[in-house]
Amino acid sequence: MQLDRDVRTRGLILMIAEIRVLAFAVLVLVSCWGMAAERGAAWIKQGRPAPVALTAVQVLVHAADEGLNPADYDATGLAKRVAQAESGAPMSADAQAALSDALEQAFRRYLHDLHYGRVDPASVYANFKLPPKTLDVGATLDAALAAGNLEPAIRAATPQFPLYQALRPWLERYRALESDPAWGGVLPSLPAKKLEPGDSYAGVQKLASRLVSLGDLPKDFVGPDRYQGPLVDGVKLFQKRHGLTPDGVIGKGTFEQLNTPPSARVEQIALTMERLRWTPLMVDKRMLVVNLPEFELRGLEIDGTQVQIPLQMNVIVGKALNTQTPMFDEQMRMIEFSPYWNVPPSIARGETVPKLRRDPSYFDRQGFEIVTRSGEVVTVLSDEQLASVQRGEARIRQRPGMQNALGDIKFIFPNNDNIYMHHTPSVGLFQRDRRDFSHGCIRVENPVALAQFVLRDEPEWTQERIREAMENGKSRTIRLKTPITVVIAYGTAMVKQRGGAIYFYADIYGHDRKLKAALQKYSQGRSLHW
Q1: DSSP string, 182-221
Q2: CA dist 168 to 63, 231, 356, 523, Å?
Q3: In a 10 Å sphere around its CB, with 0-12 CB exposed, 13-18 middle and 19+ buried, how is residue 483 labelled?
Q4: What are phi and psi of 405, to 5 degrees?
Q5: What is the value of pTM for the model shown?
Q6: Which of 121, 143, 111, 169 is nearest to 39 (CA)?
Q7: Is 393 exposed, middle or buried (0-12, 13-18, 19+ CB in 10 A)?
Q8: Residue 3 and residue 96: Cα distance in Å, rounded?
Q9: Which residue, among 317, 346, 266, has the nearest Cα to 434 in the 3D structure?
Q10: Which of 314, 326, 334, 392 is 20 to 30 A from 421 in CA distance terms?
Q11: What is the DSSP code string of 124-158?
Q12: The domain containing residue 233 runs over which residues?
């Protein structure tokens, strides 16, 4: 009997526990239903679309203004449904719930895409790290709906980096150019391989009209009979804005850019805006940003949403063919003055060793030495030592000096790809229009100015002391008291100053093409339809 009582007691305990679990589940369901009903009530008032619903569909219909695709949010379909609900008979409870849910899903996705982007960049670019997520899209939208005003949520989701804001009006302007008569068809063929100032050209008037539409010539400009005068100046400005030598000579490259339709520029702008959503450009008060297609480095000083650019210089980046510089962000932590250059094993085996076998004197001319696994430094070349390098049992390094491939300074921001910034003896390459010549690392044109920017919080490092450390030939590494964020970015559309002109650059690594394909796949697979 005692056993029966124990069994009945345990059964009663289990029953009570199950009732509690069931009650909790009911409470959760009621709570969720209540929250959903509350959100639904925000979208629909008295059987009609609320003001926030009207605002939402207008924002979604104009998603292209942000470089997004309205079809991804079924903007046209939702606008039609809201218009019908606004003018027709009051909706049934089921119809209200369905429309509320559709608006909720579409606008939540819009806010997410506006802030974070539509695709995972790691799916497009190997090893790309997403910046930390800081915006809770759901909570932000819930707060906006509770207040009956979507504007705060839209502002919170919109990227605040000045470049993003500066690209928006240019996106609208180039979209308007798609219907401009100046862009009807291609320009007439050049009379020769190139068109030089003073030459006759059948397309002079159409060329002038096209440059006027782009803003490279004033609106009241009247084209001359020949290719000359201000028309040449307009072409120079166009060339400068498209990463070309601004010499006024229209060759193959300039002619191709002049015939690139506005729709292609719209695409470039939208792709750059997409990348800006997930490029961490306002995470520190001071940052270094390299834009790879532009071959440009900038030092940024950030105060809230205000960005100053006290440092700007040309850079050389990795070759497009086989040694592309990757995109990432890391902390610069050290500077090495008068650095050794440790020749990467792939370069040593594929380039340096074969060259040394052909010309052993190159070893001394370049200031090379071989370092064994035990740390022994060998300064006399031999076949045995070269063989050990080929087997990976030793490495080649270059001593500090005039011939050193790293120049006289190296800026270190540890990363998985072993990319760093450095000076170079080959300074003439900085004057080229296209500057992808390196094995992946970034060569900087003005290393002293860069060191001053990086060491600004360490006043003991004056310009004179920096130069002395660079030139004394003795390797020395210092650790920065204040690490500085380095961002390696990729944008083929740029506005370099507030209210300034827009610049376009070649897609040197094909990243625009890859991102375009990923976005098309996103739109095909995730468009919303109800």
Answers
A1: GGSSPPPPPSSS-B-TT---TTHHHHHHHHHHHTSS-TT-
A2: 11, 28, 54, 21
A3: middle
A4: -65, -25
A5: 0.86
A6: 143
A7: exposed
A8: 58
A9: 317
A10: 392
A11: TSTTPPPPPP---HHHHHHHHHHHT--HHHHHHHS
A12: 179-260
pLDDT by residue, tens only, the chain of 530 residues? 444 555 455 554 445 545 554 444 333 333 333 444 455 578 998 888 999 999 999 999 999 999 999 999 999 999 999 999 988 778 889 999 999 999 999 999 999 999 999 998 888 887 777 667 789 999 999 999 999 999 999 999 999 899 999 999 999 999 999 999 999 889 999 999 999 999 999 999 999 999 999 999 999 998 899 999 999 999 999 999 999 999 999 999 999 999 999 999 999 999 999 999 988 888 889 999 999 999 999 999 998 878 999 999 999 999 999 899 999 999 999 999 999 999 989 899 999 999 999 999 999 999 999 999 989 999 999 999 999 999 999 999 999 988 888 999 999 999 989 999 999 988 999 999 999 999 999 999 999 999 999 999 999 999 999 999 999 889 999 999 999 999 999 999 999 887 799 999 999 999 999 999 999 999 887 654 43
Encoding tokens for residue 159?
A: 């990227």
Distances (CA, A) of 152 to 157, 165, 323: 9, 17, 44
Query: Which residues are the active-site residues?
Result: 422, 441
Residues 236 and 315 both lie in one domain: no
Residue 198's Cβ-side half-sphere holds a number of Cα atoms within 13 Å equal to 0
DSSP state, 497? Answer: S
Structure tokens at 64: 């292209």
Which residue(s) pair with 308 in the sheet? 301
Tokens of 453: 């920017």
Which CATH number goes with the domain that contains 228?
Answer: 1.10.101.10
Look up residue 270 and give its amino acid: A
Say if strands 476-489 and 286-291 run parallel, antiparallel, or are unpaired: parallel
- Sequential DSSP letters for 232-263: HHHHHHHHHHTTS--SS-B-HHHHHHHTS-HH
Give the tokens for residue 510: 């094909």
Angle of helix 262-277 relative to helix 93-116, nearest 10 degrees? Answer: 90
- Considering the domain architecture, whether residues 153 and 10 belong to the same structural domain is answered as yes
Are 410 and 336 in contact by the 8 Å Cβ rule? The answer is yes
Q: Which two three-digit tokens encode residue 334? A: 């050290």
Tokens standing for 292?
């790879």
- Find the CATH number of the domain harbouring 333: 2.40.440.10
339 with 476, same domain?
yes
Could you tell me if 215 and 176 are in contact, meaning their C-beta atoms sit under 8 angstroms apart? no
